[in-house]
Design brief:
116 residues; 5 helices; single chain; Glutaredoxin; alpha+beta
């Protein structure tokens, strides 16, 4: 059985749909983290994104992105970690980690390819 780490918010309908797809259609075993209930620490974020750039997983359409005026700003890697720790809604969601790869959002084809 395929196994993945699944980082999500239970209040997010896209996350719930992706979770159901992964469990019911793909048959994946998920190690889940509802980060709305259990926020990330900086150390955890550094571990999650050790092989990826966290700036690529910030959602420019999110309310916090707009409220913080990040549109024309260049963030350092460390500033991105700090902002995500403070404002987890900045993250694209859900995040599905398979091996060393991270898939952001609910992309059925990518998820099936990674876990199928």
């Amino acid at each position: 059985m395929a196994r993945a780490r699944f980082l999500w918010k239970s209040t997010c309908s896209t996350c719930r749909d992706a979770r159901a797809f992964l469990r019911d259609e793909v048959g994946a075993e998920l190690d889940e983290r509802n980060y709305a209930r259990e926020p990330f620490t900086l150390a955890e974020l550094r571990q999650i994104f050790k092989d990826a750039d966290p700036r690529e997983f910030i959602n420019p359409k999110s309310a916090p992105f707009k409220a913080l005026g990040l549109k024309d700003r260049t963030l350092s890697r460390e500033r991105a970690f700090a902002l995500i720790a403070e404002q987890p809604n900045l993250l694209k969601r859900p995040l599905t980690i398979v091996g060393r790869g991270i898939i952001a959002g609910f992309d059925r084809a990518r998820l099936r390819a990674a876990l199928g």
